[in-house]
C-alpha cells in the first residue's frame, strides 16, 4: 500500500551509507589533492557531494531520517561559513518539501480512514501535495462548505519507519558528526524517539492546534488555522496563505525579516503563557508571514503592507510540550539574576533545579561568565541576530581548549527542560537565519515569568512605611496652635477704627 521504504534492512543500509559515504568522499578528496587539485576546491566538492547525498537519503526515507534532517537544518547558522555553504541549500529543502507519495496511495489512505465516500466531503481536492514532510504530506482542497482547507495525510507505515530510523541513527550518531561538525546529535535523536507516539497521534495534534486557534482567534499578530476534521492518519485544517519563512530567509526584505523575527520570538514566549502549550517544532517550514487581515499576499508591498501589520501564521502542532503554568519561573528568575550579575544566586538556583549535580562543584563566577555571552540578546533593548554571532557562540562552547567547553561538559540538562532547551535553541537558529533585529526584552518582560522582579518589602520595611503614613495622617488632622501671629481682618471694628486682628486659630 505504501511507497515509503519500510524494510528495516533497506532503510538501515541507506542510513549507514551517510557516514560511510562521507569517509569515502574524504578518501576521494585526498586522492584529488595528491593529483594536484587545491585543498579549497577539493573541500568544496566533497562538501557539495555530501550535502547532495544527505538530502537525497533523508528526503527519500522520510520518517525519522527526514525528521532529523529538518531539525538539523535550523542549526546550519552555527557552522563555519565554508562548511555551512554547501549544506544550507540541501538542508533547508527539507523544511518545505520532500519526495511525495503517489496520489494512488493518498486516495487509499483517505478511503481507509475517512470512508469510501471521502470525495463527497470536498468540492475540490488537489492530488499534487503542496508540502511533504517527515511523516505525512499536505494537499490543498476545498471543504464541502466552500472553505479552503489543508488535508494532512500520514504516510502508511510512518510509525514503524520513524522508530526504526531513530533507533538506527542513534547507534551511529557519532559517525554523523562530520555531517554537522560541532553538534552533539545523539541527545536530539533520543528526545525525538521518546516523542514518537505523540508525533503520530493526529487526535492529540488536533486538540493542541484547536486550543491554540481558540486562544489566538482575534490576535492581531499570530494566526493559527482552526481544525475542520480529524480521523486516524488524516487531519483537515483551515488553509492559510502567506510567504513561507524559508522564502523570507532566502529573499525577504529587512522589514520582513525583522517583523517575522519579532513575531517568532513573541509566539515562543506568549504561547506557553496563553495556552499552557509550547509549540515544539520551530523550523521555517512551519511558519508563514501573512498580510494584514483583509489583504492578499500581493498587497504586502503596497500601502496596506506596512511591516508592523504583517502577521505570523503557525502550522504543525504534532509536537508540543505541556506546560500548564507556562514556561518555568526558574528560567525567568535565573535569566534576570544573570543579567544582574548575581553569580551566587544563579549558581544556587541552577543547582537546586538539577543543572549542576550534587557531585559537581563549580565556581559561581565561572558559571556566570559562561552564561553571559549566550544571553546577550536579552541584555539590550534591541538585538540583531546573525549567523556570525551564532558561529561565535558555537565555537566558544565547542572548542575543547576553551574554558566554556570544559565547564559546559559538567553541566546537566534536567529531563523537564530538554524540549524547552531544544525549542529555544532552534528558534534562535531561525532568528539567526533571518538576520532579524528583535526587541527580545519586550517579549521577555511581557511573557516570561520571573524576568520582571516582583518587589515584596520585608516586615520591618512595611512597618516603617505604615508608621510613616500614620504620622502624616496625625499631622494633617492636628489643629493649628493659637499663636501671637495676627492676621489682618478684612472688616473694620464697630468703632470704625483700624483693622481688627484675630488669633490665627480662630479664622
Automatic annotation (TrEMBL):
Signal peptide: none
The UniProt record lists the keyword NADP: no
Residues of the ABC1 atypical kinase-like domain: 93-349
Region (Disordered): 472-507
Sorted UniProt keywords: ATP-binding, Kinase, Nucleotide-binding, Transferase, Ubiquinone
Stored InterPro entries: ABC1_dom, ADCK3_dom, Atypical_kinase_ADCK, Kinase-like_dom_sf
GO MF annotation list: kinase activity
Family (UniProt): Belongs to the protein kinase superfamily. ADCK protein kinase family.
Full protein name: Unusual protein kinase regulating ubiquinone biosynthesis (AarF/ABC1/UbiB family)
Naturally occurring in which organism (per UniProt): Streptomyces clavifer
Amino acid at each position: 500500500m505504501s511507497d515509503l521504504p519500510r524494510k528495516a534492512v533497506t532503510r538501515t543500509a541507506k542510513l549507514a551509507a551517510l557516514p560511510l559515504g562521507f569517509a569515502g568522499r574524504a578518501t576521494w578528496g585526498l586522492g584529488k589533492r595528491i593529483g594536484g587539485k587545491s585543498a579549497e576546491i577539493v573541500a568544496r566538492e566533497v562538501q557539495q557531494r555530501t550535502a547532495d547525498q544527505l538530502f537525497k537519503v533523508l528526503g527519500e526515507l522520510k520518517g525519522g531520517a527526514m525528521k532529523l534532517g529538518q531539525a538539523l537544518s535550523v542549526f546550519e547558522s552555527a557552522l563555519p561559513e565554508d562548511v555551512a555553504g554547501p549544506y544550507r541549500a540541501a538542508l533547508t529543502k527539507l523544511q518545505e518539501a520532500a519526495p511525495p507519495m503517489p496520489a494512488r496511495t493518498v486516495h487509499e489512505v483517505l478511503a481507509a480512514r475517512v470512508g469510501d465516500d471521502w470525495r463527497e466531503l470536498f468540492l475540490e481536492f488537489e492530488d499534487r501535495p503542496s508540502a511533504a514532510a517527515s511523516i505525512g504530506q499536505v494537499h490543498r482542497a476545498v471543504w464541502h462548505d466552500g472553505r479552503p482547507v489543508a488535508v494532512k495525510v500520514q504516510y502508511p507505515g510512518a510509525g514503524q519507519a520513524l522508530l526504526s530510523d531513530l533507533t538506527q541513527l542513534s547507534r551511529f550518531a557519532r559517525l554523523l558528526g562530520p555531517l554537522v561538525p560541532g553538534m552533539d546529535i545523539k541527545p536530539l535523536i533520543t528526545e525525538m524517539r521518546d516523542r514518537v507516539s505523540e508525533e503520530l497521534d493526529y487526535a492529540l495534534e488536533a486538540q493542541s492546534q484547536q486550543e491554540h486557534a481558540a486562544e489566538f482567534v482575534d490576535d492581531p499578530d499570530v494566526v493559527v488555522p482552526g481544525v475542520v476534521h480529524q480521523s486516524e492518519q488524516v487531519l483537515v485544517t483551515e488553509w492559510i496563505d502567506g510567504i513561507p519563512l524559508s522564502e523570507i530567509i532566502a529573499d525577504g526584505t529587512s522589514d520582513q525579516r525583522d517583523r517575522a523575527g519579532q513575531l517568532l520570538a513573541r509566539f515562543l514566549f506568549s504561547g506557553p503563557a496563553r495556552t499552557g502549550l509550547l509549540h515544539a517544532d520551530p523550523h521555517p517550514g512551519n511558519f508563514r508571514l501573512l498580510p494584514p487581515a483583509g489583504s492578499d499576499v500581493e498587497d504586502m508591498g503596497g500601502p496596506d503592507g506596512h511591516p508592523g501589520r504583517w502577521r505570523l501564521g503557525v502550522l504543525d502542532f504534532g509536537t508540543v510540550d505541556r506546560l500548564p503554568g507556562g514556561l518555568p519561573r526558574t528560567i525567568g528568575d535565573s535569566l534576570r539574576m544573570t543579567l544582574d550579575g548575581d553569580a551566587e544566586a544563579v549558581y544556587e538556583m541552577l543547582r537546586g533545579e538539577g543543572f549542576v549535580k550534587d557531585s559537581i562543584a563549580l565556581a559561581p563566577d565561572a558559571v556566570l561568565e559562561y552564561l553571559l555571552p549566550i544571553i546577550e540578546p536579552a541584555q539590550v533593548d534591541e538585538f540583531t541576530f546573525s549567523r556570525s554571532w551564532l558561529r561565535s557562540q558555537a565555537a566558544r562552547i565547542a572548542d575543547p581548549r576553551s574554558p566554556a567547553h570544559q565547564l559546559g561538559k559538567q553541566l546537566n540538562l534536567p529531563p523537564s527542560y530538554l524540549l524547552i532547551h531544544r525549542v529555544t535553541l532552534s528558534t534562535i537558529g531561525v532568528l539567526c537565519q533571518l538576520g532579524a533585529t528583535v526587541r527580545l526584552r519586550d517579549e521577555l518582560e511581557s511573557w516570561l515569568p520571573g524576568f520582571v522582579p516582583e518587589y515584596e518589602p520585608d516586615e520591618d520595611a512595611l512597618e516603617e512605611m505604615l508608621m510613616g503614613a500614620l504620622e502624616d495622617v496625625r499631622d494633617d488632622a492636628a489643629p493649628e496652635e493659637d499663636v501671637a501671629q495676627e492676621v489682618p481682618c478684612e472688616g473694620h471694628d464697630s468703632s470704625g477704627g483700624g483693622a481688627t486682628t484675630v488669633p490665627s486659630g480662630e479664622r
